[in-house]
Write the structure tokens for this entry.
Amino acid sequence: MFKVIQRSVGPASLSLLTFRVYASPKKDSPHKTSVKVNELSLYSVPEGQSKYVEEPRTSLEESISHLRRYCEPYTSWCQEMYSQTKPRMQSLVQWGLGSYEYLQNAPPGFFPRLGVIGFAGIVGLLLARGSKIKKLVYPPGFMGLAASLYYPQQAIVFVQVSGEKLYDWGLRGYIVVEDLWKNFQKPGNVKNSPGNK
């Protein structure tokens, strides 16, 4: 249909160059009118109305649908728990990585101090035989005492903060007990007292 006017032949290095190729229609071909895009058969729209027909569901599809409806509350609960615990787990991992880095580059004398503090906890556990309260009090107390010998400034800050918290808790407990005592002593709340027969 078209005849190439120019040809180019050259070495392989010239193959990277761009050339324009001009083509002209044959002299003997009749002039045709251009065809519009919507007239092409590729773009033609089939005639008639199409209707969507839903296929009947098989028993396998029904059982999968039932299983999804049954598991939906559990999966939503799991997704919610995951979204709540993910930041906590990431912070825990960061804390673990920070602790690992600290232990890799520990200051001199850190591990002997850590050993003494741990040994004090074991001694407290051995001395606390028999009583559950002693087992709760002695090991942390002995470890705190050993730690305060090595880290006195941090121990002072810890005692100040924990003392303030203990005072605050004691004050709250006192207020609650006082309110309960006042409610118990009201004249309307007294039942079956010896004077009321």
Summary: The CA atoms of residues 130 and 190 lie 43 Å apart. The mean pLDDT is 80. The longest strand covers residues 2-4.
